[in-house]
Structures
1.
Amino acid sequence: MRGVGEGVAMIVAEELSGRARAVLRAVAAGRAQLTGGCEPDLYIDGLPCCDQMVSHDLVRAGLLRGRREVGLYERTEALLTEAGRAAIS
């Protein structure tokens, strides 16, 4: 029997767009950074992500997070959460 978290990750994974999956793969590869704030901006390979709504949605869904808390204009490494890893596995 699967745990509740696994079921939620499976449902979320089924609803992710191709762009959202690509963002999660970039985060998994260590290529992404997040800024601070309640709506953090995502940078991939040092450049702003072209779809900030996707990155905001992924953070709100609990699929990615920053390594540490930073100020509004500071950046930190973006990391996948357990649910984020499950969503792209």
2.
Amino acid sequence: MTAMTPYPVGTPGQPWGAAEKAEWRSRQRKQRSYAGEVVSVIDALRGDFDIGQYSELDYAPDGAYPLFALRSRSWSDSLPVVLVTGGVHGYESSGVHGALRFLQRDAQKYAGKANLLVVPCVSPWGYERIQRWNPDALDPNRNFRANSPAGESAALWNLVQPLLGRFLVHIDLHETTDSDESEFRPALAARDGKEYEPGTIPDGFYLCADSARPQPAFQQAINDEVAKVTHIAPADPDGTIIGSPVVAPGVIEYDYTPLGLCAGITDARYVTTTEVYPDSPRATPEQCNEAQAAAARAAIDYALANPGR
């Protein structure tokens, strides 16, 4: 067996301290523009939505990153609230651009039916650097809790708190990529002083439901709509996807709240986390963006047709 090359930061078996985290951050390079690729699209939607800056992340010397949320212009206290989030992991491009596509094309059909709250890019520093973590080597999607140490997570947490009790749906848009195995999981093991154990990358779209409120018919409705756009990931031979048991075709479950996952920040009846695979030979980035928008649309349609608690 060929020995794995140690991760280039830190000492194998020893958790990172401040010096290692600083070295890791120094290796990250800006590769795309949040202002040019995301904020400009948000600005173009000002005629259709109320757009607000809900926080700003000061990541000097890299810069300051304003965080934006878009709300239905026809917001009404009598309507349920739907939350769509993208870019919690900034490198997951279709989460960001799928949310923007949903806003551009689909969102207006819900005027007078639901209040939409859409946050297309939760982690702009990560978006620009095609990175899973924030500059402090923290994964925002393990830090959604009160008084979070991750600025991205704390800002979104604070945004949704005044609306608790009114959410019907929260759909959080993610990707699984080949870089999960080539970079992000090895980095995680190195940061935590653990041995890296190779895993598998699912080929296709799948959902991660909340084990505390799984709503299997809701998950199935989303997969049925996405299957019109791209393929649903099969289970591995052991009946799992990324090591978790498959509870229905293309569906696994996590316990959201203890894990600090984004999709656990509301009390919505219907919650899910999407995952697409843009590196698949059977899918294109365009299909992945479309799959994310289709998932958001299907989630809202199902919930509005089945709103009872």
